[in-house]
């Protein structure tokens, strides 16, 4: 301000320099006086505002803060010997700092400060974590039939064709068919039935509503395919067909005993499953969940399978169907995996042997290999394990079950794996494998009881299996196995995640157990080329263990050679240039290879041959 005034004064004429200089000094002093007055006025207003804010703030302090402030004021009085007014100032300052520390982050200013200035490494030019303000939100819905996700504008599921708003065997129908009154009457009937004489003409059913309590509690981005609706769908389908409750006899449910489980699983595995009952939600593997009811559901499922095997072996029932969950064929000796906690088929097989069975056949047609069941009986020649599953050179879950996995030690040859090398395998391939591998080996083995690990995830429309087996195909396979072991057949539910496919397939199987003959035409049974190749591969490996397979292997090898020659002939026939060669620059080449030139050469060869024969 002073420099500006001096410069203005120097620009005057020489005669007025001193006069103007004095005037400038007077104005300079006046400006400073005015500025001092303004500054004092502003400072006064600021102090007044601070005092008023401090008074307002002190009124808002809680009683406990006042107590702390009073103690701090006392300490200040003792140390500094300040006046009462000074003590009030110290008290107010301490109150303000304490209140501000407690309320930090509750204002927009604090939030703004924390967001932009708390980070020491913050750089406003760094846009590496930049995101658009409006995120792209893709709305989707999950199919109630197969749980697959679909875009919101689609009205039918891309995987199974189910309508967006449909309910597959809704809960109302299930409640009507399995109300408390009906359940009480069923329980009374089943106790009377099994307390009386044997019933060799009936089919037993293992089911209990407590297994529906096993479900995934934690909400994930995708519904879990192994859900309670699987049992509800099958039970509703059986009720709609008038089969259950009705034609089937429901056995009493019980929890399996620890000593029965320890025949398959060690105590530490049993304790690990039991510990899940103390947690609301837990996971043994990323896809194998448990809640507080899962251990109970697993014990009931295993107990039902054990009792069904014992009832069949003792003659109380002809055959049985275990409508149970969680499934079991992936559960190994010491590990829970693949949605499975206890191995239901394994405990049933050992229970059947305890009830008098010398040899047990387990046929696993689940689309996934039963790695747990194979591990348990890998060296046991009293249990024959046969599995038909997708393998694709180990790329399909769980990756085990190659054709050369035949067992170990005394159990060599008693693990028979039929690994499909692609998806989309249908009825013809499965039944063809039954005719040439499963039934010949099983007949030679002569089991006392047959157990089916009946996973229906190879069914048409299943989101995980992606195969093409129909309910008629499952019924035919069940009928073929019922000819073994004098009809002693136990079917245990494993996988299957399309509710319509699993319900219709299970109903078709139960109808066969009740004595209904399947309607499947075997006259035009032709396997696919990939299926024939797999069957030949398995036959070649197991010839040294089961010589009865020799005739089938020889016949199928000739059939394979015939197909190979036809394939080469077709390949040679289709080595024809495009039709437009006839009119383009390659017209001469086309005529020479496939046109008049070829016919002329063939006629010359025939003429020379006829002339040679005449001579």
From TrEMBL:
Signal peptide: none annotated. One of its GO terms (molecular function) is histone deacetylase activity, hydrolytic mechanism. Pfam families: Hist_deacetyl. Residues 137-166 form the RanBP2-type domain. Its EC number is 3.5.1.98. InterPro entries: HDACs, His_deacetylse_dom, His_deacetylse_dom_sf, Ureohydrolase_dom_sf, Znf_RanBP2. The keyword Zinc applies. Keywords: Chromatin regulator, Hydrolase, Metal-binding, Nucleus, Repressor, Transcription, Transcription regulation, Zinc, Zinc-finger. It catalyses: N(6)-acetyl-L-lysyl-[histone] + H2O = L-lysyl-[histone] + acetate. This is histone deacetylase. It comes from Platanthera zijinensis. The gene is HDA15.
